[in-house]
Amino acid sequence: MVSKPGLRYDALVMGGGIAGLEAALNLADQDFSVAIVEKDASIGGKMIRLSKVFPTLDCSSCITTPKMAAAAHHPNITLFTYCELGSLKRRDDDLVAAIQQKPRYVDADLCIGCRQCEYQCPVLAPDAEQGGFAARKAIYIPFSNAIPPKALIDPKDCILCGRCAKICPTQAVNYFQEPEDFILTAATAVIATGFEVTPLADK
Hints:
single chain, FAD/NAD(P)-binding domain, Alpha-Beta Plaits, 2 domains, two-stranded antiparallel ribbon, 4 helices, 12 strands
């Protein structure tokens, strides 16, 4: 397990949905350093996928998108997307979180979000972001206002045809990317892990 230098924060927020974003922004605005750890490839959670919210029927993305942008550009907030929490333990006055960065098979530092890879990909797969009612490519950006706007490959759907790697203008595609384990330390943690939607067949 790697403990990267400088990965110590005042607060660790588990979950980048609307609750986690609100908590992180409130803390960051009070000059606390905050790390948001999100298991999906983009922050926004379930709310960004909704059309309207009860009971006022306000536009869901109109509420969530500004908070996503504010968190992404806040100097006191660091985003760790597409990461899984392995463990969270108390050590003296700190909380120690073991985090695994899942492989995107795309170098996020090189990806410019141009979607050329997505346009070239020949594979169509059910899009979980759309409840399985629409299709997406094997390499894709989760949705139009995703933060960060970086592509990822679903290895279950990819046929390794190489088209995305050939078209990528920054050579960001990396089929051999491995998971990366590292440690975050923080003084406190906020658990805002959200919920899972019940499959229609189970209702």
